[in-house]
Structures are given as C-alpha cells and as structure tokens.
Amino acid sequence: YIAYHIVEKNLIGGLLELNWFSWIVIIIGVAFGGFSIIKILDKTVFRHIENLELDIKYHKQGQVGEDKVADAFKECLDGSCHIFRNFHIDVKKQDIDEILLSPWGVFAIEIKNYNGVYELRGKDFFRKIGKKYIQEKDKRNPIKQALGNALDLKRFLEPVFSANRCSAWVTPILIW
Prior knowledge:
Number of strands: 7
Radius of gyration: 29 Å
Helix content: 40-55%
Strand order of the largest sheet: 1-2-3-7
Number of helices: 3
Distance between the termini: 73 Å
Strand content: 15-25%
Order of helices and strands: HHEEEEEEHE
C-alpha cells in the first residue's frame, strides 16, 4: 500500500509535472540508451551468433570432404586395410580426420575442403585475400596440423609398437 502510493505520488506525479523541455531530454535519453544497448548487442551477442553459424557451415563443408575421401577409400582398398574416422587421442586436441592402418604402414590423414586460393611455401601456408597472400596461423595451417597429428598418433601407438619390438612410424598425409 505504501509503495503504491509512493510510486503514484512521487514517480507518476513527478513525471506529469515536468515541462516540455524535460520531456524532450527524457525522450532523447531513452532513445540514446536504447540505441546504445542495440549497438552493444550487435558488437557482442549478434557477432557471436554469426561466428557460430560460420563454424557450423565450415564444419558441414569439412564433413562433406571427409565423407568423399572415406567413400574413395572404401572403393579402392581391400580388406587388409582399416580406416578410423575422427579419432581423438586427447580431449583437448583436435581429432585426426582419418587413420589408415595398412600393410604398408600407419597414415594420419588430414582432409581439407577449403574454398579460395592458397599457396604453400615450405611448411608455411598462405591464403590469398585480394591481391595479397596472408600467412595462416599455425592452428589453421593444414601442413602443420597433419604433422602434429602424425606425431600425436606416433606417441599414442608407441607402447604397442615397443611391446612388439617395432618402431612406431606414422606418415602424415594431407588430402585437399
């Protein structure tokens, strides 16, 4: 009861007694505050949603490439080979797209289904943007990713190979 009367008399009564200039200031303040909130949401939440949508798109695109490679392996290889897809060695690291176990060796296969123009210089990987080639960061460099996956798989298989008195050797392969 008391809160209702305080709000009715002080807040509503005070607003009704304001002159036209005060109302213009309040309207401009509310409009500016609303505009600011929209801009903040645009810079944070909406951008995050756009990034998630791009991540989903690129994941689907990568999955299509991996499916095509797996289908090609199924057509070409005989029963002496085994393929493992999306193999995780460590929870924190990325997966190995495909592992091929064959009589000829163990292969860690990295598959990329990128669009655009790229260039390889040694182990450095560049993407063409406009007229310039920009070097990709290590985590987006498929050469370094394939080498890292082969090393991780070698370390993972080392105890098995050692128990059989063999040396673990994993060959990295990048399929574009």
